[in-house]
Amino acid sequence: MRGSGIALGTAGLAAFLALGEAVPRLGLVKEAYFPPTSRIASALVDEVRDGAFWTALGDTLTGWALGLAIAVSAGVVVGVLVSVVPYLREATASTIEFLRPIPSVALIPLAVLLYGTELRSVLLLVVYASFWQVLVQTLYGVQDVDPVADETARSYGLGTWARVRHVLWPTALPYVMTGVRLAASVALILAITAELVIGAPGLGKRIAVAQTSQAVPEMYALIVVSGLLGLCINVGARTVERRALAWHQSVRGEVAV
Amino acid sequence: MLDVRGLKKVYEGSGRRVEAVRDLTFTVEAGELVCLVGPSGCGKTTLLKCMGGLLAPTAGDVLLEGRRVTGPPPGMAFVFQEYGRSLFPWMRVGENVELPLKQKNLSRSRRRELVADALRSVGLADAAGAYPWQLSGGMQQRVAIARALAYEPRVLLMDEPFAAVDAQTRADLEDLVRGLWRERGITILFVTHDIDEAVYLGERVVVLSASPTVVQEQLKVDLPDERDQLHTRVAPRFAELRTHVYEQIQAAKRGTPVVTVTKSDTPPLH
């Protein structure tokens, strides 16, 4: 079952790549705007050989990782505090609901005004976009604490901090993990968007440069790279999730009782 | 040892005022095994939570060894009915049992010793490495009991601990509790809605009235110390006692005026 799934997936991907090769070659679309797969592939090979490409990749990953780290720490800390401190959740709910839907890209002008094309511009957008994902999931997670589990902890004399650590945090962790996974994808999107629009160094800027200099296959090659990056991030996040939540219903298999 | 004096608990919220417990007074002596029975919904859990310091009573006091209970006291352990929710699924059995000990400033080796000993006495010596959800319901409740034992409490409060397990497992667990009680000399307050269980386990049975709750009757169980599922439950005296408790509970449900009987009283022979 699993084997045939992989085979089908590979076949599907191969067919897609073949289609990408055939459509421009048959003249259905203009080759100048939509180069065949093989030309994109050779442009990709050229990119990989170029030192500047790796610098750009490093810049993008730096912005992504730093921004994500800040957003996750802030989201978790704020989420736990807002839930634990009485009345704070009710007091902040409306503000959170107001700020959360503001698209991060709407802050691009602000980022440019504040930081120009520096890394900090990228960070501002990345953090703003991914912070809410983590915060909202943390808030849900903390609310999910089982009253019986909490009473058990209280009856055995566990103090506030011990209960946060041993009951609240493990309960919230599955939610936080989901938040981190979503935030990781959003952070990449925003990192590349910021580079593309603002011109901060990174893959996004390289895509913009390739586009303006009519290097269409290179542009596609870079787009492929960002796609692969997103894929790796998602697979990585899922692996971490599975490891950390081996005890959780969603991960543990059927248990013989 | 454990004194409940004029305990009253009123829940107020969303425009509804519910008097769960009206006026409860009773005592549990050191080393006693007392069963609390009452009709369903009579506030047994509320009472136990007040006694365990998990709920603040509206009026009245709970005294443990002469001191007023205002929060969960260190010498008291709680076993909940919902073992599946009371055990932490993210911790292995050994870690679950050990967690409360970490609050007690014990050395690592002493903690290990207590955990191993507690798991051994509930017959789960080799389950320390398993997760609770890998065990059957009965085994999970054993783990919860082991966690309470390892805590070395002087008083053990048990809130309908066997209501969610099957009849055979239940019989085994009842014998386990009686065995542990005789072995360790812990004071146990055991809440149940099962009359047979109350009579089989207890040295004394406190019958509660329907809500708003007061003590309907207290009676001493004059069955021999050595009890077993096969013989005790068919003994004529067992039948008399359970019939008596049953009648009291029926009376409680009908709301017959309460005759408070002192705890040394035993029901008349039929």
From TrEMBL, chain A:
<keyword id="KW-0812">Transmembrane</keyword>
<dbReference type="InterPro" id="IPR035906">
    <property type="entry name" value="MetI-like_sf"/>
</dbReference>
<dbReference type="GO" id="GO:0005886">
    <property type="term" value="C:plasma membrane"/>
</dbReference>
<keyword id="KW-0472">Membrane</keyword>
<keyword id="KW-1003">Cell membrane</keyword>
<feature type="transmembrane region" description="Helical">
    <location>
        <begin position="172"/>
        <end position="199"/>
    </location>
</feature>
<feature type="transmembrane region" description="Helical">
    <location>
        <begin position="219"/>
        <end position="237"/>
    </location>
</feature>
<keyword id="KW-0813">Transport</keyword>
<dbReference type="GO" id="GO:0055085">
    <property type="term" value="P:transmembrane transport"/>
</dbReference>
<dbReference type="InterPro" id="IPR000515">
    <property type="entry name" value="MetI-like"/>
</dbReference>
<dbReference type="GO" id="GO:0010438">
    <property type="term" value="P:cellular response to sulfur starvation"/>
</dbReference>
<dbReference type="Pfam" id="PF00528">
    <property type="entry name" value="BPD_transp_1"/>
</dbReference>
<protein>
    <submittedName>
        <fullName>Nitrate ABC transporter permease</fullName>
    </submittedName>
</protein>
<feature type="domain" description="ABC transmembrane type-1">
    <location>
        <begin position="57"/>
        <end position="241"/>
    </location>
</feature>
<comment type="similarity">
    <text>Belongs to the binding-protein-dependent transport system permease family.</text>
</comment>
<feature type="transmembrane region" description="Helical">
    <location>
        <begin position="64"/>
        <end position="86"/>
    </location>
</feature>
<keyword id="KW-1133">Transmembrane helix</keyword>
From TrEMBL, chain B:
<dbReference type="InterPro" id="IPR003593">
    <property type="entry name" value="AAA+_ATPase"/>
</dbReference>
<dbReference type="InterPro" id="IPR003439">
    <property type="entry name" value="ABC_transporter-like_ATP-bd"/>
</dbReference>
<protein>
    <submittedName>
        <fullName>ABC transporter</fullName>
    </submittedName>
</protein>
<dbReference type="InterPro" id="IPR017871">
    <property type="entry name" value="ABC_transporter-like_CS"/>
</dbReference>
<dbReference type="Pfam" id="PF00005">
    <property type="entry name" value="ABC_tran"/>
</dbReference>
<dbReference type="GO" id="GO:0005524">
    <property type="term" value="F:ATP binding"/>
</dbReference>
<dbReference type="InterPro" id="IPR027417">
    <property type="entry name" value="P-loop_NTPase"/>
</dbReference>
<keyword id="KW-0813">Transport</keyword>
<dbReference type="GO" id="GO:0016887">
    <property type="term" value="F:ATP hydrolysis activity"/>
</dbReference>
<keyword id="KW-0547">Nucleotide-binding</keyword>
<feature type="domain" description="ABC transporter">
    <location>
        <begin position="2"/>
        <end position="235"/>
    </location>
</feature>
<dbReference type="InterPro" id="IPR050166">
    <property type="entry name" value="ABC_transporter_ATP-bind"/>
</dbReference>
<keyword id="KW-0067">ATP-binding</keyword>
